[in-house]
Amino acid sequence: MKAELRKAILAKRNLLTPQQITAKSLQIKQKLFNMVEFKKAICVCFYVSFKNEVSTHEMIKEALQLGKRIVVPVVESEKTLSLCEIKDFAQEMGIGKFGILEPKSEYRRQVDLSELELVVVPGIAFDENGNRIGFGRGYYDNLLSKMVGLPFIGLAYDLQIVTRIPATDCDIPVHKIITESRIVTCHN
Predict the structure, then answer these.
(1) Which of 16, 24, 93, 115 satisfies CB 3.0 to 4.6 Å to 101 for a cystine?
(2) How far from 99 is each of 14, 63, 88, 128, 150, CA to CA, in Å?
(3) Where do the structural domains in the chain lie, given as residue ranges?
(4) Predicted TM-score (pTM) of this structure
(5) CB 158 within 8 Å of CB 181
């Protein structure tokens, strides 16, 4: 069922134009930046958007300008992400594994999980209980399982919110989901 749901939502997301992605991502950014969790967090972990995901590139740049410490994932090995702090998005980022931007090797400043205060999480689909479907490789569930007590906020377009996602014990839910039209406080 997850594979079918992933395929259906990706097909819908692929229909978004670059202009729609920019406009919706801006609406989502405004909601995120106005949240108490974001305002009080000094060290924020962002995913680096890829293809037609909710775009985080401008969010990261603006958060850096606000003086926040920004941490992004780096693919280390099968199902393992490390977290590195970036200080200059344009200068420090390069194409990494799977074609996703990540810090170039000379800019990898590893950050301990205990330094994080907020985690911004990607997903292909979410339900209102905070369950999510990613690309099925388990990278984020593995990472999130080590971050007990931190707020996890998923970013998604309205079209990515579904009625129910089948979850297992390995699936780590998010606490809130921000879309272009609303903020969902999850029931988990």
Answers:
(1) 93
(2) 17, 23, 19, 30, 28
(3) 2-185
(4) 0.94
(5) yes
Distances (CA, A) of 47 to 1, 60, 104: 25, 9, 16
Residues 81 and 87: their CA atoms lie apart, in Å, by 19
d(CA 118, CA 151): 5
Q: What is the DSSP letter of 161?
A: B
Q: HSE (CB half, 13 Å, CA atoms) of 89? A: 20
Phi-psi region of 184 (alpha: psi -120 to 50; beta: other; left: phi over 0): beta
Question: Digits of tens for pLDDT over the chain (188 positions)?
Answer: 788 999 999 999 999 999 999 999 999 999 999 999 999 999 999 999 999 999 999 999 999 999 999 999 998 877 678 899 999 999 999 998 888 999 999 999 999 999 999 999 999 999 999 999 988 777 888 888 898 889 999 999 999 999 999 888 888 999 999 999 999 999 76
Q: What is the CA radius of gyration of the chain?
A: 15
Distance CA 97, CA 7 (A): 22
15-46: string of b/e by CB count within 10 Å (b at 16+)?
eeeeeebeebbeebbebbeebebbeebebbbb
